[in-house]
Specification:
The protein is α+β, with helices and mostly antiparallel strands. About 15% of the residues lie in helices and about 20% in strands.
Length: about 220
């Protein structure tokens, strides 16, 4: 007798006497989608950038596409890394029961990413992995991750990233928004009121920024 059934999805094959070895039952998903498919894919793309060129770069080598996010609290009292492939999700956390600094050089990328990598190497060897599914309704645009400039479709190289945009919502290139956002500019998070700084926008023009918030350094269009 079932006392409590957490999963409300319909399992058409769960009542049969037996299934062929290695064949999972057919489960019909009736769950509510809580985020738009294209938005979810764009966030996944940002998190894949964390592994490719961000705070976990060089720490995770699985041979299959992987995305994730590092985390480090103030004074490095807690560090973590949570990541996923197309079919496996895993996370690592490190910290003391009574919070205190973990020591010099303690970051999510330096401590937890290697643990995640070791576990996932074994998991993907057993369960495999593959490309992330691209939802319909969008298209890729190649961008220089240091300048934000739009590139040709055949562009290639270490500074080229292909970002996915919703159809009909192409980005506007070569414009500085809010007086302080410039792709690739090495700007401090806040500038003193009497200071100004000249930056180069993605179309090659120079713009002088006033003494206000600059959104810091953004060099790749990713969430790192």
């Amino acid at each position: 007798k079932t006392i409590f059934r957490h999963d409300k999805r319909v399992c058409e094959d769960c009542r049969v006497a037996s299934l062929d070895p290695g064949v999972p039952p057919t489960i019909i998903s009736n769950r509510e989608r809580v985020i738009d498919a294209i938005t979810a894919y764009q966030i996944r793309s940002m998190m894949q950038g964390v592994v490719q060129r961000g705070t976990a770069a060089g720490k995770i080598k699985l041979g299959v596409p992987v995305a994730g996010k590092t985390g480090t609290t103030n004074d490095a009292k807690d560090v973590w890394f949570t990541g996923f492939t197309s079919n496996i999700v895993a996370g690592c956390y490190m910290g003391f029961d009574t919070p205190r600094p973990l020591g010099k050089g303690a970051f999510g990328g330096s401590m937890c990413a290697p643990v995640f990598n070791e576990f996932m190497q074994k998991a993907t060897k057993k369960y495999g992995g593959g490309p992330f599914a691209v939802p319909p309704g969008g298209h890729f645009i190649k961008i220089d991750r240091f300048t934000g400039a739009r590139l040709s479709d055949d562009a290639s190289g270490p500074n080229v990233v292909a970002e996915y945009f919703r159809d009909g919502e192409d980005p506007v290139f070569g414009i500085v928004f809010d007086g302080g956002f410039a792709m690739g500019a090495n700007l401090p998070l806040f500038e003193e009121a009497e200071r100004t700084r000249t930056v180069t926008t993605s179309d090659g023009n120079s713009v002088t920024l006033g003494g206000k918030a600059s959104f810091g350094t953004v060099s790749s269009g990713g969430l790192y």
